[in-house]
Amino acid sequence: MFPNSSNMGCPPFPPKHQQQNNFFNKSPLNIPPTFLSHQQIIDAQLSFQNAALSRARLSGDLATIPAVKLQTMTYRNDSLAQTSDASIPFRGRKRVGEHRVPHDAKRQRFHSQHSETTVVNQAVPLQEERRFSFPGSIQSPQPHAHCRADLTGCVPPLQDTSFPDPIETSLPVAKDKLSKQVLEMFRACQQQTCDLNRKELCRTELQREIQQIFPQSRLFLVGSSLNGFGTRSSDGDLCLVVKEEPVNQKTEARHILSLVQKLFSTKLSSYIERPHLIRAKVPIVKFRDKVSCVEFDLNVNNVVGIRNTFLLRTYAYVENRVRPLVLVVKKWASFHGINDASRGTLSSYSLVLMVLHYLQTLPEPILPSLQKNHPESFDPTMQLHLVHQAPRTIPPYLSKNGSSLGDLLIGFFKYYATEFDWSHQMISVREAKAIPRPDGIEWRNKFICVEEPFDRTNTARAVHEKQKFDIIKSEFLKVKLICEKYGRKRSRSGNNMKEFFLLY
Predict the structure, then answer these.
(1) What angle do the packed helices 405-414 and 322-335 form, to 10 degrees?
(2) CA distance 177 to 190
(3) pLDDT tens, position by position, for the chain (504 residues)?
(4) How far, in whole angstroms, is CA 163 from its chain's centroid?
(5) Is the Cβ–Cβ distance between 135 and 306 less than 8 Å?
(6) 3-state per-residue secondary structure call for 27-61
(7) Do 449 and 443 form a contact (C-beta atoms < 8 A)?
(8) N or C terminus of the chain: which is more exposed, having fewer CB within 10 Å?
(9) For 286-309, what is the HEC assignment?
């Protein structure tokens, strides 16, 4: 939400087809932060508020939009099926497999006459006179003129004041060439505190405007912006929660988003551009904030995104090798054109889960299953205004695995190139192991199966064409060959990261 920020959102690794072999010679090692004056911040905050003064000059478009009061809905109080926490012991250096298929609870349609009913809150609690990204957690930020790296502690809490200036903590020690390059790329590309503040300021102002239509609604910032895996070029993801009950995504959610789209294209047209309603399985409104130059996706009541944001945030900070490894894998996938769900490849969320799964399944794991070890902190029935508190109580995970970042990066590519069985196995971070695919329609005849940790759907369902699946597999296989080809060279000088980006 700040002017003069046009240098934001420039990906340090453009797609492969736009690059030549001199890519690393031309790419800057660091992206300079944007420095903001106090007056720029004040101007940005007032820009949305001044929009209210121009309402009388509008042609009456919004006057025809009544304040919508959604009818209370009842739904079945299903709980997720429980599976045994007993794990199969390791055998030598083999990875743990699972031969039992977890029972997938069958969901009841909201209006089914056979549904069981429970009393639930009709709306998310909204504290008066306070606008938080998460209730009782994040106050609207007073963005700082200085921008520092978001290198917070083990699992940094989101405090009751503004976004705190992060306390820098130690990153992994890099002794070999490849590990140093991984850390260098991480430091250059990771989301900065000022990037997060810009998104949070936009969320705050949009919530104020949307509440003119849905008075009891809350607007949550979710996804990579908060989960610890964001980059300077990451878009913003927003979840509009109108009530704590499920919303029919094909009817109710689309109706709500059509009103939001009209709000953006009329009253807020001076500040929001290109608002577009996309009628997907989970419909969204895509738009761009002209002031901050950030692209946003806004959905309605996709509350699983709120829950998994803080699960991933916890994974991001319980072990200091996780964030650098995830960021480099995301950049690698983007560079080679396999990180775009809209084009039939892997979403960033699926890629993050793939990295976490790999770290969980090493002979000496680097990550545990947080949902197994701390079920009370990641209860899928926990009220939304308490979800943000979960990471505060999770201690660091002390792994005996001392592998370097370079070795882990190479191991990640080898695992998905040769070890993981794409045809029969499902990636499960919840179980911390590869498990057989369920026999439901969600998984049948799918090329890649990545389990969503809370609602247990397939996050990789966008990969529905064999051609795209073959491209994804081929990228992993090419990197594996690079690792083998340069194996002896690595003993002398170490792998160079451009091998993984360019030399094939």
Answers:
(1) 50
(2) 20
(3) 333 333 333 333 344 544 443 333 333 333 344 444 444 444 554 454 444 444 444 444 444 444 444 443 333 333 333 343 434 343 444 454 444 444 443 333 333 333 333 222 333 333 333 333 443 333 444 444 344 333 333 444 443 333 333 334 578 888 888 899 999 999 999 999 999 999 999 999 999 999 999 999 999 999 999 999 999 989 999 999 998 788 999 999 999 999 999 999 999 999 999 999 999 889 999 999 998 899 999 999 999 999 999 999 999 999 999 999 999 999 999 999 999 999 999 999 999 999 999 999 999 999 999 999 999 999 999 988 889 887 888 988 999 999 999 999 999 999 999 999 999 999 999 999 999 998 888 888 899 999 999 999 999 999 999 999 999 999 999 988 887 776 545 544 455 666 666 543
(4) 19
(5) no
(6) CCCCCCCCCCCHHHHHHHHHHHHHHHHHHHHCCCC
(7) yes
(8) C
(9) EEEECCCCEEEEEEECCCHHHHHH
For residue 315, give every residue at least 6 positions away whose Cβ sits within 8 Å of its Cβ, in sequence order, or none.
228, 322, 356, 367, 370, 429
Partners of residue 298 on adjacent β-strands: 238, 285
| Helix/strand/coil for 319 | coil
Q: Quick check: pTM over 0.85? A: no
Reading the block at residue 91, the tokens are 């055998």
At 221, which helix (H) or strand (E)? Answer: strand 218-222
E runs forming strands in 151-202: none
Residue linked to tokens 């009220």: 383
